[in-house]
C-alpha cells in the first residue's frame, strides 16, 4: 500500500467522477460497487452552473453535451388530459448557458468509460468492516479478503453504509414527500416532452426522450411518515384522472421501481479519520432540488484537488474540501427544502390557484421574465461557488 491508494465505495456518479480526477493527479483509486454491473436505467439529471465547468475541466463536457436529452417542452394537463399550459423545458427547469440535462445512465457510462482500464472496479461487492491504522485503513470486503488503503471515500449514496460504519446511524431530514419512478410503454408518443398532472397532495409526471424511447413515470405524494413501502402507491394514487390508472396497472407488474422518501443528508462534518464522505452520502439535497448530480461533481473536483495539493496530509485536505464546499452545499440544501414544498400542492385551493396561474400564463406579456424570476434561485444556487483556479487544485483539459 502507498499513500496514493484510495478506496471509493460506490460507482454511482460521485465515485467514478472522483476516480477519474484522482487518477489524473497520480493517485491509484479502486472503486467497490454493490451492484453486480454498472447500474443503467434511472431518470434524467441536470448539470448546472459550476458543475458544467467541472465537466469541462474533466474533459468530458463535449461527451455530456452530445448526450443532452434535448427536451423541448413541459405540458401541464388536467384530469381529462386537456392541456392547461405548455412551456419551454429549459426555461421552466431553470437551465441557462452551458447547463444541460441527460439521462443518468449516459453520465454513468461517460464517467466509467473515462476510467475503465485505469481504475480497478470491484463490482458486486461491499465493504464489510473498516479498521483505521496509523498509516491507513484495513478494509474487509463482504466477498472475502482484506486490503489496506490510505484513504476511504464513502460515495455510496443517500443510504450510505460506509457512512453508517464511521458515523453511526444518522437521521435523514424527511421533506414530507415520497417519489416513485418507473418505466412505462410510451403510449402517449411523447417526443422530448414532459407532462405534469397535479391534484392536492399528489403529482404525476411522465416524459420520454423520443417516440421510440420508453417513458418514465414519476409519482410524488405528500407523506408525513418517512418510512413507507411502495405498496402504498396504488392506494395513494387511487381516483386520479388522466393516465394514472394506466400507470398503476403497469406498476403492478413492474419490479424495477425507484421508490424513496424525498430526504436530505445534513451533517456537521464530512470526514472521520481517514474516511471522507462525498456526494449524496455527505449532503444529499433530495431529488426535489435537481442539484444532487451537480453537487456530486463539484465535490469530487474539490476533493481530488485538495488531496493532490495537500501532499499526503489528508486532514488538511478534508478540512479544505469541506470549507470550500459547505456554503454551496448549504445553499443547495435550502433550495431542496423549498422545491420539495413546491412539488406537491397542499390543498384544493392552492392546486386551483396553481392551475389558474398556469392557464393564464400564456397571456402574460412578461411570461419569460416571470419564469426566469421564479427559477433564479436555482441558477444562483448552482453557481454559488467559485472553483479554485490555482494550478495546485485545478488542471485543465480540452473539453
Ligand atoms: C428520482 C430522482 C431524480 C433526480 N433528479 C435529479 C436532477 O434532475 N438533477 C440532479 O442534479 N440530480 C438529480 N437526482 C439526484 C442524483 O441522482 C444524485 O444526487 C446523484 O446521483 C448523487 O450521486 P452519488 O454518486 O453521490 O450517489 P448515487 O448516484 O446514489 O450512487 C451511489 C452508488 O453507490 C452504490 N452503493 C450503495 N450502497 C453501497 C455499498 N454498501 N457498497 C458499495 N456500493 C454501494 C449504489 O449502487 C450506487 O451505484 C435525482 C435523484 C433521484 C433519485
Short characterization:
The protein has 399 residues and is of the alpha/beta class.
Notes on the protein architecture:
- It is a single chain.
- Helix 10 runs antiparallel to helix 11.
- The chain has helices at 14-24, 50-58, 61-66, 89-92, 104-113, 161-167, 233-236, 244-252, 280-283, 292-309, 314-343, 348-361, 367-382, and strands at 5-9, 28-33, 44-47, 73-77, 83-88, 100-103, 120-123, 127-133, 136-141, 146-149, 151-154, 173-184, 193-199, 202-208, 215-222, 258-264, 271-272, 275-277.
- The chain has a domain at 5-70 and 98-172 and 265-342: 3-Layer(bba) Sandwich (FAD/NAD(P)-binding domain), CATH 3.50.50.
- The two termini are 33 Å apart.
- Helix 1 (14-24) links the parallel strand 1 and strand 2 (28-33).
- By secondary structure, it is of the alpha/beta class.
- Helix content is 36%, strand content 25%.
- It is built from 13 helices and 18 strands.
- Residues 391-399 have low confidence and may be disordered.
- Bound molecules: flavin-adenine dinucleotide (FAD).
Regions with pLDDT < 50 over 5+ consecutive residues?
391-399
CATH architecture of the domain at 5-70 and 98-172 and 265-342: 3-Layer(bba) Sandwich
Give the rounded overall mean pLDDT: 93
Instruction: Spell out which ligands are present.
Output: flavin-adenine dinucleotide
Instruction: Classify the beta-strand content into a percent band.
Output: 25-35%
Name the structural class. alpha/beta
Distance between the termini: 33 Å
Kindly identify the CATH topology of the domain at 5-70 and 98-172 and 265-342.
FAD/NAD(P)-binding domain
Fraction of residues in helices?
Answer: 25-40%
Strand order of the largest sheet: 5-4-13-14-15-12-16
Largest sheet: 7 strands, mixed
- State the shape: globular
**The CATH class of the domain at 5-70 and 98-172 and 265-342:** Alpha Beta
Rg, rounded, reads 21 Å
The CATH fourth-level homologous superfamily of the domain at 5-70 and 98-172 and 265-342: FAD/NAD(P)-binding domain
Tally of alpha and pi helices: 13
How many DSSP-defined strands?
18
Amino acid at each position: 500500500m502507498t499513500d496514493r491508494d484510495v478506496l471509493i465505495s460506490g460507482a454511482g456518479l460521485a465515485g467514478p467522477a472522483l476516480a477519474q480526477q484522482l487518477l489524473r493527479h497520480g493517485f491509484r483509486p479502486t472503486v467497490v460497487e454493490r451492484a453486480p454491473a454498472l447500474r443503467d436505467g434511472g431518470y434524467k439529471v441536470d448539470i448546472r452552473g459550476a458543475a458544467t465547468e467541472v465537466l469541462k475541466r474533466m474533459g468530458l463536457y463535449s461527451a455530456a453535451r452530445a448526450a443532452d436529452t434535448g427536451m423541448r417542452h413541459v405540458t401541464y394537463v388536467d384530469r381529462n388530459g386537456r392541456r392547461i399550459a405548455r412551456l419551454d423545458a429549459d426555461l421552466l427547469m431553470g437551465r441557462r448557458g452551458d447547463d444541460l440535462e441527460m439521462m443518468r445512465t449516459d453520465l454513468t457510462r461517460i464517467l466509467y468509460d473515462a476510467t475503465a482500464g485505469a481504475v480497478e472496479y470491484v463490482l458486486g461487492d461491499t465493504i464489510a468492516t473498516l479498521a483505521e491504522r496509523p498509516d491507513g485503513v484495513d478494509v474487509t470486503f463482504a466477498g472475502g479478503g482484506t486490503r489496506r488503503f490510505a484513504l476511504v471515500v464513502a460515495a455510496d449514496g443517500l443510504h450510505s453504509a460506509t457512512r453508517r460504519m464511521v458515523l453511526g446511524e444518522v437521521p435523514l431530514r424527511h421533506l414530507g414527500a415520497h417519489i416513485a419512478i418507473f418505466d412505462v410503454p410510451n403510449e402517449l408518443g411523447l417526443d422530448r416532452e414532459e407532462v405534469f398532472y397535479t391534484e392536492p397532495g399528489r403529482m404525476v409526471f411522465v416524459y420520454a426522450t423520443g417516440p421510440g424511447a420508453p417513458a418514465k413515470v414519476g409519482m410524488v405524494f405528500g407523506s408525513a411518515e418517512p418510512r413507507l413501502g411502495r405498496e402504498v402507491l396504488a392506494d395513494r394514487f387511487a381516483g386520479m384522472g388522466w393516465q394514472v390508472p394506466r400507470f398503476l396497472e403497469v406498476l403492478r407488474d413492474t419490479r424495477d421501481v425507484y421508490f424513496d422518501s424525498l430526504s436530505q443528508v445534513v451533517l456537521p462534518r464530512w470526514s472521520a479519520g481517514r474516511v471522507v464522505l462525498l456526494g449524496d452520502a455527505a449532503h444529499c439535497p433530495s431529488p426535489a432540488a435537481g442539484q444532487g448530480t451537480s453537487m456530486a461533481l463539484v465535490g469530487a473536483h474539490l476533493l481530488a484537488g485538495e488531496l493532490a495539493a495537500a501532499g499526503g496530509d489528508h486532514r488538511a485536505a478534508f478540512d479544505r474540501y469541506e470549507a470550500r464546499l459547505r456554503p454551496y452545499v448549504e445553499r443547495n440544501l435550502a433550495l431542496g427544502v423549498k422545491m420539495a414544498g413546491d412539488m406537491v400542492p397542499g390543498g384544493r385551493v392552492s392546486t386551483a390557484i396553481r392551475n389558474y396561474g398556469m392557464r393564464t400564463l400564456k397571456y402574460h406579456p412578461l411570461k419569460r421574465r416571470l419564469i426566469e424570476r421564479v427559477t433564479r434561485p436555482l441558477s444562483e444556487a448552482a453557481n454559488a461557488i467559485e472553483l479554485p483556479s490555482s494550478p495546485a487544485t485545478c488542471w485543465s483539459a480540452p473539453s
